[in-house]
Structures are given as C-alpha cells and as structure tokens.
Design a protein that fits this description.
mainly beta; Immunoglobulin-like; about 45% strand; disordered N terminus; Gliding motility-associated C-terminal domain-containing protein
Length: about 800
C-alpha cells in the first residue's frame, strides 16, 4: 500500500510583494509505496514535494530526504532509509496563468525515489505499520491555523503486515494524478477531484481530518532540521478559533468531501489561504488494511464581476455538435474552441491540465475526455468550462521486442511484435517493405531501421510500431600486453599478461585453451606463444595477435667461503664470485674486497648478485664474513687458601670462547670446564688456562695458588705508633676469607670483631679509644661451622 500525503500549497502573497524577495517554503507533497512485483517485500518509495519557485531557495533545496518505517503497536523503528531526487523538476500548471502570475503562484514539483527490500517474515504484526516523511516550513500567509510559518508537515502512510498466515500479502498504496493549479472565487461554487486510484482495486473511503505538524517543529524549539526521522504519534496543527477539520474553509456550504468519490466541494464565504487534510482509508473485502493522509491548500480570491466565458468546442471536419469521435491509432484529430482574443485557454485531458495546451485548438492523438477552461486574459475572473469531448483510439497496438546483436561481421537480431491478435503484419527496413515478411517475428543479419505496419482486420486501421535500429558494433580490438613491455621471461619468475578490448576473455597457450581463465590478466610461468579472444558486452569477439614469450636461461651464481677473522686488525679479504660481472654487497664490502675494520666485530652477510638479463632480478649467492672478537680472560694472578679447601674458579671471559684447557689438572674436577672446581687442595700450585672461540681465536692466563696449613697468632703486639708491630698481624689468615676474629677485655666485653676475613687488622683501639696495656682473650674461627682457636694476647704500650 502506498501512503501519500499529497499536499499542494497555493501560497498567498500580496500583489506588491516582489518575486525576488519571496522565501521558498515547502508547499506540500505525497508519499507512494509501490510494489515492484518481482519478489515479495520489494518496494519503490516515491516522495513528491511541492515548493514555491523562489529562485535562490529552489537552488538550495536538498536533493535527498529521510524516511522511517515503524510498527504501529509500539512505534518501534523498523527501518530508516534515504530517498534521492530522481526526476526533472516540473512546474505546476494553472488554468489561468495570468492570475497565478499576479499572485506569485509559482510552484515546482520535486520527486524523490528510494528502492527498499523488506523481509516479509519481519513484518507480520496484525496491527500493521506506518511510514512517515517530515519536513517544513509552511507559508506564513495561511489564515486558518496558528503560527503557520513555524508549522511543518508529516506525510503519513499506513500499510498492512507483509506476511499473513504464512503467505506474502501483496499491496501498493493509492496513486494520485498530477495536480492542477487552482484558486477559488469568493461566493462561487467550486468542485475539485480529490480522488485516487488503487493499483490493487481496493475500496477507498474519504474523510476530512486535521493536518499533521512535524514532530519537534520550530515552534517547540526541539528540532529545526528538515526531513527528520522520528516515531509517532505526530502532533496536529492548531486551528484558529472558528476553524476545524470539517470547517477548514468557511462557506455556504463549507468545504466537504464525498466519502466514496473523493470529490471536494465548497462555496467560499471568506478570502484567504486555507489548509485542510483528507484521510483516505483502504479496504479489502470489507476490512481496513491501510490509510493515507494528504494536506491541501486553497487560495480564495475576490473575482471581479464579469461575463463568464462560455466556450463551445467542435471537432474539425466532423458533424456539428458531435461530442465524441473515434480515430485510428497513430492518427490525430483537432478540437476547436470558440476563438476570442481576450480569452486564456487551458486544455485538460481527464481533468488534468495539459502542458503547453493554451491555444483555441488542440491536436489529439490519445484517448480521453477533453475539456477546455477559459478565462479573461487580463483579469482574475470566473472561468468557463466547455462540454467534454470524448475521443476513442482504435487499431492494433503493437510493441516491438528485439534480441541479439549485429557484430562487426557476424551476428543476428531476432525481432517480434506483440499486440493485437486480429492484425496482419508487414515488416519494413529503412522505409521499404520486406518482401514476404508478414509474420509476427523476423530474424535479420543486416543493419537498418526496422518497424512493422499492423492492419487491424475489424477496423482497417493501419498502425506502426516504434522503430528498432539494428546497428553493427565496432570490431572488437583485442590486445595482449606484458606488464613490463618485454617479451622475455626471467628465470624462476612470472610475467603478467594483460588483455584488453572486451569484458570477458579466453586464453590459449601454444594453441591449447587455458581452461577456466576468463580474467583480463593471466600470469605466465613458462615460455610459449600466447593468444587471446576478447568478448564485448554484446557477445562479439575479437582475437589478439600472438604474443611470443621467450625464456631467458638461468644463471648459476657462487661465492667462495670467507675464512673467520680474529678481531678487526687483519688484512682485507679478496672476494671470489662466479660468473664474473656480478655485484658484491654487504657491510664492510668495497668493490670486491671485505674490510674487517670497516665492518667491525660481528657476523656479516656478504652477497654476490648476477642478473641473467638486464630486466631480470638478480640471482644471489650469500656468504657470512665472521669478524670474531679476540677472547680475553679476567683472572687474578694469585690466590691464597688453606690446606684441604674446596672452591670454584670463576674467571670472566669475553669473545665467546667455547673451548677451555687447564694445565695442570691436579685437584681439578674437570680440566676442560670454564669454571672448574678445586677439591681438597694440599700444596701450592700454578694453573694456566687456554681458551679458544669457534673462529679459532685464542687467549691464555695464569694463576698461582698459595696454600697455608694454619693461621699463626702472635703472643703480643705494641700499638705505640712507632711503625713497628703497631697492629696485630695474623700470618696465613689470607687463606681463610670467611674467618671470624673476636677479641675481649678482661670483663668479657667484645672490643674487636672481624667477620668474613681479617680485612682490617686490630690496632689496639675500640670505638676510636686506645685500649690500655693488658692481656686480652681472643677466639679465631678460620672456617664457619668448625672449632675455633682460643688464646690470650698481650697488648703492650711503651711509655718511654
């Protein structure tokens, strides 16, 4: 079902208002929801907008609009989408253009369209759905609603569930004819056809209702944007006192509508611009399935008293007074109205004003009911209407359908005429009849303009189909090109071949079809002769010239190994690559030599590249040039320990050594270990460590170990500052790095304590105070967890 809010605003302006100063207002419009008919749920949505033809405003008018679809039961948004301008902008035709010009009644029609695919299974609610399009503003000159310049429009449409009882429910909205531009004369009876047609044959019922405002319009200060998407309910406009839906235009009688036909009637009793709205309800099998609403506006003017023109019409060359005629399809007939140089003329077909039909006579080729509306040229007076003349068109109606195509040298076109069954046929080529071609179809292989003359047997009318121009298309220019422009294939490489001239392609190599290859680009991996057939949009083909692809022989590239170097202070190394003529590269490489000083310590990649041909990528041989660091050993020259001790060597190595040799091996648990353990050492000994890294770079170092059997503690010492025996020396204590020495006074108080070896010898003081001469007990524990040595020490001070 199509919802159409079809609103035409006949704007009211004073005669003194210049046209260039007018703002452009939204006049009205309509919604239409048209089933496409291919698959369920596929619709074309059409929005028709009417606007004032303000020159600058029309130029700025947006060419898009936004719509929303909502579920009626809870106003849930189902879909929002955009429609875009789809047709040329047309002007609204007035019966009296003079009056329209005087009152600045110039309106333009904008048409927006959008294609939507709805999923029927998602639209099953029994209460149905609605669609809305909102925009603004109305004209400030409207006389029956409050604050009209701040009031907008809501175009509204309801449609039923798209799937009912598991079956798709097909429906389109009512469709409205183009609108005539009209104005009302004060005190004169006026009727206006306000009906619609329903594509599905559904029953339509009409009623007057209050127009809808835009939700959140400028008056509320919520949202001034045009074409907003928001759910209902939508607000009504506010009537001024004395006006309502059934009294929108005051009169005797006031504005009313025929419930069944949609015909409006009114005899206006008040000047002004009046807006009203009509609701059209759609019924199928007595059940309402949807509705549409449309606003409309009429301008009531004071028409000066004058004689109402009373035109008569006559069919030329026909019996006087004849009110109907029949013509053959393709022929024409002329209707002549009473000629009067002071009259304006506007011809209508089926009640709709015809564009550019403003002369006293009209040439007719289409069937319909024709009338002419006549008014005074220089006055906005009452109009006169002629009696209708009905024209029927008979004769065979045929439409030409064609298939196939004429290629440059081949091809054929099949043509068939579809139309009346009681007709004979004669085919024509370039205006000449084709002998013996009298069937309803024909196949041709030559170019030309073809049509069919149809003669209806019952009437004898001869009609002609439209013309089909069968033309040959240009020859397909197929071409193969390589990405590089070369015809040579490099070793272990591919070549991108690109075809042109068509939309699909078939490739061959050495005369054999390459199955499944239809793309314009083919990646060749081997040499050969490639060919291509291109097919254009018509199915015509063309074959490209052969493209011979030659294979460039591969090249074997070698680079001699490079001996490891110990440190950077070594001679430059000559690089040896084969075959000659290649290029050496890498850190430390200069031409054909490797310089360790430039490269520095490290593992360096050296390459030798040779190209099989100038356009080919190089073949690369790679070697590593190792500039190894010279190893170093950080090992103390000597060490003192005690007899029977077990400990581990912990030298610090650099240069990444991986081979170790200790000499001698006595007391060692492993003479090839980097950090061997010395077990139960008994005598003095000297060790030499020799190391070597993976590049063969060497280093050596030596350590001498002195072994003490015990620590000797003297009986006395003299800390008197004479430089002799001023501190308590303990020979052999160096062998015991974990020794603990404790000295007491005669009251058992500790006056000296040394842990983790005897690093600071006892100097006869305690806390910075000199101790007196006397005997001092001591304990010495050379090794943790072992028995301690105890004794007495005499501290002497010489007072001389």
């Amino acid at each position: 079902m199509r919802t159409s809010t079809f609103l035409v605003l006949l704007g009211f302006f004073t005669l003194t208002l210049p046209l260039r100063s007018r703002a452009t207002h939204q006049v009205g419009g309509q919604l239409e929801m048209k089933a496409v008919g291919d698959v369920p749920g596929h619709f074309k949505v059409i929005v028709t907008n009417y606007l004032e033809d303000g020159t600058q405003g029309i130029a700025r008018q947006s060419n898009t609009g936004n719509l929303g679809i909502f579920r009626k039961r809870d106003n849930t948004l189902m879909l929002s989408f955009t429609v875009r301008e789809s047709a040329a902008r047309q002007r609204v035709i007035y019966s009296n253009e003079y009056c329209a010009e005087m009152r600045n009644l110039k309106f333009v029609v904008f048409t927006y369209e959008g294609d939507i695919q709805l999923t029927p299974s998602a639209y099953t609610d029994s209460e149905g759905y609605y669609m809305s399009y909102q925009t603004r503003n109305r004209n400030a000159g409207i006389n029956n609603i409050s604050d009209p310049s701040q009031i907008g429009f809501t175009f509204y449409l309801e449609f039923p569930a798209l799937q009912q009882n598991g079956t798709a429910f097909n429906n389109s909205s009512p469709r409205f004819a183009p609108i005539n531009g009209e104005y009302l004369c004060l005190g004169e009876p006026f009727t206006f056809p306000f009906s619609a047609t329903d594509p599905d044959g559904d029953e339509l019922r009409y009623s007057l209702v209050t127009p809808l405002d835009q939700k959140g319009s400028g008056r509320t200060g919520q949202n001034n944007a045009q074409s907003i998407v928001s759910a209902g309910p939508y607000p009504d406009v506010t009537w001024l006192s004395g006006f309502n839906a059934t009294n929108a235009i005051p009169g005797s009688p006031s504005l009313s509508i025929n419930e069944r036909t949609g015909q409006l009637s009114v005899t206006a009793s008040q000047l002004g611009l009046f807006v009203f709205a009509v609701k059209v309800e759609e019924y199928r099998n007595g059940v309402k399935i949807g509705e549409v609403r449309r606003d409309f506006q009429f301008l009531v003017v004071d028409c000066p008293p004058s004689t109402v023109p009373d035109p008569t019409v006559q069919l030329q060359n026909r019996t006087l007074g004849l009110r109907d005629a029949t013509i053959c399809r393709g022929d024409s007939i002329v209707i002549q109205a009473t000629a009067n140089t002071s009259w304006n003329y506007q011809w209508r077909r089926n009640g709709i004003n015809l564009a550019n039909a403003t002369k006293p006579s009209l040439t007719i080729r289409e069937a319909g009911e024709y009338t002419v509306v006549v008014s005074q040229k220089v006055a906005c007076s009452k109009t006169g209407n002629s009696e209708p003349v009905t024209i029927r068109v008979v004769g065979a109606e045929g439409k030409l359908f064609a298939g196939g195509h004429l290629c440059a040298t081949t091809g054929s076109v099949q043509m068939k005429v579809v139309g009346s069954t009681d007709a004979t046929y004669q085919w024509y080529q370039n205006g000449q009849p084709l002998s013996g071609k009298t069937a309803d179809s024909i196949t041709v292989s030559q170019p030309g303009n073809y049509w069919v003359a149809l003669k209806q047997q019952t009437t004898g009318c001869v009609t002609r189909t439209d013309t089909f121009a069968a033309n040959r298309s240009p020859a397909v220019q197929a071409l193969i090109q390589s990405a590089t422009g070369s015809h040579r294939l490099c070793p272990q490489s591919t070549m991108a071949l690109t075809g042109s001239g068509g939309i699909s392609y078939s490739w061959q190599k050495d005369g054999q079809l390459l199955s499944g290859i239809t793309d314009p680009t083919y990646t060749a991996t081997t040499a050969g002769v490639y060919s291509l057939t291109a097919t254009d949009t018509y199915g015509c083909t063309g074959t490209a010239s052969d493209f011979a692809l030659e294979q460039i022989p591969p090249v074997t590239v070698t680079l001699d190994s490079i001996a490891d170097m110990c440190g950077t202070n070594v001679p430059m190394v000559a690089l040896q690559g084969s075959p000659p003529g290649g290029e050496y590269a890498g850190v430390g490489v200069a031409e054909s030599e490797f310089n360790a000083q430039t490269a520095g310590v490290g593992n360096h990649v050296v390459t030798y590249t040779v190209k099989a041909a100038p356009e080919c990528p190089g073949t690369v041989a790679t070697r590593r040039a190792v500039v190894a660091p010279v190893p170093t050993i950080q090992l103390t020259d000597s060490l003192i320990t005690y007899k029977g001790n077990t400990f581990t060597f912990n030298p610090v190595y650099t240069g990444n050594p991986n081979q170790f040799q200790w000499v001698s091996s006595t007391y060692l648990d492993n003479d090839h270990a980097a950090n061997p353990t010395i077990t139960n050492i008994l005598d003095d000994i000297t060790y030499t460590i020799a190391i070597q890294n993976s590049s063969g770079c060497e280093a050596k170092d030596t350590i001498h170990i002195t072994v003490f059997e015990r620590v000797w503690v003297p009986d006395a010492f003299t800390p008197n500052g004479d430089g002799m025996n001023d501190v308590l020396r303990l020979p052999g204590i160096e062998a015991f790095p974990d020794a603990v020495v404790t000295i007491f006074n005669r009251w058992g108080e500790v006056v000296y304590l040394s842990k983790n070896g005897y690093k600071q010898p006892f100097d006869g003081t305690s806390n910075g105070n000199a101790l007196p001469t006397g005997v001092y007990p001591y304990t010495l524990r050379p090794i943790p967890n072992k028995p301690s040595i105890e004794g007495r020490l005499l501290l002497l001070r010489d007072h001389n």
